[in-house]
Amino acid sequence: MQKVDKKIGILLPYKNISFGVFESSKITTDQVKTNLLNLLLTIKGERHMQPTFGINLYKLIFEQNTEDLQDKIKQEIITSIETWLPYVVIKDIDIFYINEDDFKSNKVTVKVDYGVIFNDTFFDTITFKLNNLA
User: Fold this and answer.
1) N or C: which end of the chain has fewer CB within 10 A?
2) Which positions ≥6 away from 117 have C-beta within 8 Å?
3) Alpha-carbon span 93 to 83, nearest angstrom
4) How confident is the model at residue 79 (pLDDT cuts 50, 70, 90)?
5) Does residue 117 register a pLDDT over 60?
6) Selected residue with higher pLDDT from 63 and 81
7) How many other CB atoms sit within 10 Å of the CB of residue 100?
8) Residue 72 pLDDT level (bands cut at 50, 70, 90)
């Protein structure tokens, strides 16, 4: 029996493995992670014909740094994942909002612990940073 080598989708970040060919995922868990990262890094309105796809994280980092801001960020993530990736289960969301210098930059680190339920339960983590240089 011959093993079938099927590619599911393109992985993020893009890696050009040969001219015009990007690295592709071959297992579902890798593609789920790529899909989640794509959702989290896309700004609502950025995608043509899908204006509600994405999350407004880049807009939220301009808001006043309060305890409510972290709740807004978490809710934005939860709502978008439930809408666009219903097969993803959120285990935990941690947000680290750091003001290094009130006049120079704001940095937000978001850590999402998530899972996907197939035959067995699969859990992984995505951590990414958003920087706004004012």
Assistant:
1) N
2) 87, 89
3) 17
4) very high
5) yes
6) 81
7) 8
8) confident
CB 81 within 8 A of CB 87: no
Q: Is the dihedral of CA 89, 11, 128, 52 positive or negative?
A: negative
Chain position carrying tokens 């339960």: 121
Region of 33 (left: φ > 0; alpha: ψ -120 to 50; beta: rest) is alpha
As its CATH architecture, domain 9-133 has: Roll (3.10)
Which tokens go with 78? 């939860």
Angstrom distance (rounded) from CA 99 to CA 76: 21
Give the predicted TM-score (pTM) of the model. 0.72
Residue type, 66: T
How far is it, in rounded angstroms, from Cα 88 to Cα 86?
5
Of 27, 20, 21, 23, nearest to 5 (Cα)?
27
The two structure tokens encoding residue 60 = 């939220």
**From CA 30, how far away is CA 43, in angstroms rounded?**
22
Contact 36, 88 (CB under 8 A): yes
